Amino acid sequence: MTRLLGRLGGWCARHGWIVLITWVIAAAALMGGSLAFPSPTNSDASIPGTDAQRAHDLMKDGFGSGYATGGTVQLLLYSADGPLIEDERKQAVERAMDRLRTMPHVTKVETPFRAGGISSNLQIGLITIRMEGNDSDKIAQTTQELSKAADPARDAGLEVVPADSSTPADKEIKTGPSEIIGVICALLVLVFAFGTLVAATVPIFAALISVATGLGVIGLLGWVVDMPKQAGIMATMIGLGVGIDYALFLLSRHRRLLADGVPVVESVRRTVASSGGAVVFAGGTVIIALSALLLAGFPLLATLGWVTGISVVAAVLTSVTLVPALLGLLGHRINSLKVPLLRGAGGSHAAGTGWAGLGAWVARRPWRTLIGSVIVLGALAAPALALQLGPLDEGYGAQGSEPRRAYELMATGFGPGFNGPLIVVAELPSKVSDADDPLVKDLTREVEDVEGVKYVADPKVNTSGRSVLIQAIPEYAPSDERSAQVVRDVRAISLPGVDVHVGGKVAGLTDAGDRMNERTPLVIGVVVLLSALLLLLAFRAPIVAVKAAVMNLVSLGAAFGALAMVFSIGLGSGLVGMDPPVNSSFVQTIFFSVPIESYVPLMLFAVLFGLSMDYEVFLLTAVRQSYLRHGNNSRAVAEGLGSTGRVITSAALIMVAVFVAFIAYPDAMVKTFGVGLAVAIAVDATIIRGFLVPATMVLLGRLNWWCPRWLDRILPNLSVEGHEEDEPVARERREPVTAGV
């Protein structure tokens, strides 16, 4: 692979303008196409084969589209100055309903002046609009049009808030300030790392082209597959981080070779042959980890996985083609525009650097370093025991937003459970004529008797008479774990021949949590196994491969500990933009607990495992190269850490800056990822790569690179080091480090 990559890098360096223009045109065309033809987003959390999905399917059979997803829109009315039933206000509401009845696709408008439609204080009302034939992909646009039609009520001084404004399409996350902040922070780190403006801009430019290409592909794919609202932001977050990092590793290697007097094109060729191989393997581990999410049995999570993988593929491709082209075009001008007082990196030797000194220090004190690192990491991971998983509702949205305001009005006027109604759909053993049938009445009473059910609406029988639909309102908010228990209790209702199914948001998220608990061990096992196998192919060292997988799991513990501290314990949730409920006490504001969606830890595991493996690959590559030169394990560890420490730290700072910038986004899942990824990368690049990994490698000695002869014979030669690209200095370069078995 190294020879192939070397030839590719050399060709790109010699034909820089062709490569550069091709990438710019491709990125502009793909991004322009996705902007010109924006695809809809769909964050449907349904899971095939679950009870909630069965209820959803039955809802579409004979009950009318008004009871199916996207068939109902609700408008909340609030009068701050008096009751809604006052004559002038009531007339204004009726005028608004008359306008709503004239809107396209509206089949029925239910008045708030009915039982269950107005609050006990008569100041909050609910207009329910049934629709048929509307485009469910445009429900957000439809909701806003219906809200506008209710202007007669607003003209009378009433507040009108669409309860359904929080649809997935309406909450699509747009790119904006966070990306700009992340790029600026990355540029500053690169300027300090390289000391020149020209060198600092190369990784930024390559990453932007990579992200634009990936987003363009993702945007166009949205026309053929359901694309979650978080897809673009996740791809941008990960794409920026890995795109800048991969280019940084290549650029650092190239500048060292230039400093050693290697000609430009030859330097680029060697860089891509060696560091380019590490980039390909590092990107491969990220893609493998993300691809394993396909085994989670959760379509939304699987889509987020492979969509994010597209951004990683784009980052790898630009790193091994566009970056060499830029390096070839710039030549020695890569060191132009030096920043005063900044020496930057770029020397050919690690000796004398702070990281080399740290490596030597760790090599002399491996046991103390190992024990101290384990204690610190254990303390960071300890809060993870308090990690609270559960569904998020709009009560955790940004203060002043329409979804948050609608949630608060609904909870105040009708109770928190009205924000997450349960849709009970039962299949009957025989045909019934109407809702007065004894079997339907028995079923209704059974639902009413379930502990935690506050209100049950009149049952509806479908056109075939073989299914009945009952809307049940729980006493608890959708994010309350007790709501999930109500779902399970309703499903447990037993009547002869009756199959009871429960759908709705709360039921769907309950099923998602159960599916995650069921599939998590499988996904983790596959990710760890495949990543270890890839490292085995890269370094032909089974102990190193297994140890690397274990070390990555350790960094995950620190990430989950940080998530628990910020969100579950609530110490810092306000600092990341999670607004506590209105009229909260000072203590409640400081310790505002926020649940974490059940699928987030698994997604975070896949992303973090892949990103952590990046630094492992680059560190091991450097240690392996040193070991093959002189065969001294402790010295190789110190030299490997010395030669990569500054680069890995710079790369980690860039990723941390990018991820922290995304915490400003209003979406709670993006905030969760921003906190978890930033903490994990910071811990991984410092404590784990700076202390724990070197200490364990020193203690293992030659066992690091031990490989049974039978295994060495069957493994394909996919060396990631590219050591044949440099001057031969020792016989060990041509012979594998093996041991008989």
Report on this model:
The chain is elongated and about 90 Å long. The C terminus is likely disordered. Helices cover 59% and strands 7% of the residues. Strand 7 and strand 8 form a beta hairpin. With 741 residues, the chain is an alpha+beta fold. It starts with a helix and ends in a 27-residue tail after the last helix. It is built from 23 helices and 9 strands. Helix 17 runs parallel beside helix 20. The longest helix is centred in the C-terminal third of the chain and has 35 residues. The strands form 2 sheets. Strands 5, 6, 7, 8 and 9 form a 5-stranded antiparallel beta sheet that branches. Strands 2-3-1-4 form a 4-stranded antiparallel beta sheet, with helices on both faces.
The gross shape turns out to be elongated
Unreliable stretches (pLDDT < 50, length at least 5) are 165-175, 346-352, 722-741
Assess the beta-strand content as a share of residues.
Answer: 5-15%
Number of strands: 9
Structural class: alpha+beta
Pfam families: MMPL
Subcellular location: Cell membrane
Membrane topology: Multi-pass membrane protein
Keywords: Cell membrane, Membrane, Transmembrane, Transmembrane helix
